[in-house]
Amino acid sequence: MNAFLGRHKISLFRWLVLFGFLGFWELLIQTGTTSAFWTSAPSLMAERLWQLASSGELAYHTWITLEETFAGLAAGTAAGVALGLLIGVSRNVGAVFEPFVIALNSLPRVALGPLIVMYVGIGFASKFLLAFSLVVVAIMLNTYEGIRSVDRTLVDLMRKMGATRWQTFQKLLLPNCIPWIFSALRVSISFAIIGAIVGEFISSRAGIGFMIDTASGAFDTTGIMVPLFVLMIVAFGMDRILVHVSNRLLRWRPRDAE
Amino acid sequence: MRLSSVQHAEVPQAPDGEIAVEVSELNYATLDRKGRRIDILQNVDLRVREGEFIAIVGPSGCGKSTLLNIIAGLKPYADGKVKVLGAPAHGIDPDVGYMFQTHALLPWRTVRRNVELPLELTGLPRVERLHRATEILRQMGLAGFEDHYPAEISGGMRQRVSLARTLVAGPRLLLMDEPFGALDAQTKLLIQELFIEYWERHRRTVIFVTHDLAEAISMADRVLVMSARPACFKAEYMVGLPRPRSLADVRSTRQFTEFWDRIWDDLRQEAAVAMMGRAKQ
């Protein structure tokens, strides 16, 4: 028993924290200390979650948001890596574009929302573009950094071994970027979701952001909380999967770097 | 160049005429930040016979690495003549192997894939690469570690992998820039023994830069002393110690101690000049 406790201490406390929090929340509502109108309650949310799930409504809206997120993430990553490599490999191109990229990065991209809606309307394209715009710069900057951070000794080594420019790129610079791209991907998952949701807030007919927006109009706290909860679970799951994949792919790194 | 006359006769040598590296009247200068000219190498002459092991010692920062880079064909030089393996130094040459002080392994490649790298660059087929990498790793005492990543092995092992990578393509000329300089004393001795044993079997031409006198004397056929900047060869010692050498035994011989004292005598003046020069800057 003690050995079991030792090994599972952390996860045990995690569950304690989770249930303690939910229990306390529920207790506040049941004893009438706070009003369910403002904070909803775990029991109310569970009930609503069940309703929305069994009617298929939840899956529909979640799927819409996921589509926007994934499309933005995939396209943003592809374009970001390509651009990052381009400005990283050519010293001149990099030097010319660096200040513009930084300036663009410091612009809060969600503020582009209204402009994007004006250009492409309120359909899929506006959410996709918003997610894309958030992801592409983050990935590009990290890819660029991945190229620039390469150990000069290794570049020197490749030259001394007679590597061509292409070989140096393919065998040294590109692999050197991979950890950088993965760490950018991790933040980009949240960025892509932000882009999709904000796009839906601005104007939409479906999606998690649409659910939240609609519920907010009706002062339906539970209706806001449930999609938020689902969103959190989805983002958490995506992050776990990514961490798992990157640990597998980057197992060459020293353990303490994790 | 002042030539030492010690023990000229007994040096084991490749037949005359086969010159692997020939440097004559080489001058090299760079500009500092303010655009002033700094002479790095001045009137450097060097002849290395095929199969000869020479060591170059000199004060730090004197231009030893610059000379190696020029011989490797990676630094353009304006003034002088450099012939490597019968042709002007020209960079890309699989017959020239290079080794640094840092292991310079690619962290995402396993030990074996790191060693295969030079063979990959010349487009050798996969099976052949695998075979040759496995063989050289065995010779370097790394059998069983082929699939480890560099982060998983010790510093001494990494340097052995680096050595294996330098040797795997079977280069005729080895340019080694303080290759064992960063290792602790015991590890260094072990890797020196490993290397000298390999060398005595294969007799490649070696130009070995070091600031460790004991290393230079115990391994090389000939030790050249470089002066402080602008550098040229100040003295030359034929090390007539018999081969095959046991590095541990060599160090306790009277000749070794004699060489050590004489070379250090030359070197200390240069080292002092170099140190004062740096203090002034």
Task: Provide a compact summary of the structure.
Chain A is mainly alpha-helical and 258 residues long. Chain A is built from 11 helices and no strands.
Labels describing this entry:
heterodimer, A: 258 residues, mainly alpha, MetI-like fold, 11 helices, 83% helix, B: 281 residues, alpha/beta, Rossmann fold, 2 domains, seven-stranded mixed sheet, four-stranded antiparallel sheet, 8 helices, 36% helix, 23% strand
The succession of helices and strands of chain B, N to C, reads EEEEHEEEHHHEHEHEEHH
Give the SSE string of chain A.
HHHHHHHHHHH
Q: Enter the CATH topology name of the largest domain in chain B.
A: Rossmann fold
CATH superfamily of chain A: MetI-like
Low-confidence stretches of chain B: 1-15
Number of strands of chain B: 11
Largest sheet of chain B: 7 strands, mixed
Kindly state the percentage of residues in helix of chain B.
25-40%
- Which structural class do the helices and strands of chain A define? mainly alpha
Radius of gyration of chain A: 23 Å
- CATH fold naming of chain A: MetI-like fold
Question: What would the average pLDDT of chain B be, to the nearest integer?
Answer: 85
Category from helices, strands and their pairing of chain B? alpha/beta
Strand runs of chain A, count? 0
What is the radius of gyration of chain B?
19 Å
| Number of helical segments with 4 or more residues of chain B | 8
The 3D shape of chain B can be described as globular
The helix count of chain A comes to 11
Q: Please indicate the percent range of residues of chain B in DSSP E strands (runs of 2 or more).
A: 15-25%
Protein chain pair with the most extensive contact, residues per chain: A-B, 22 and 23 residues
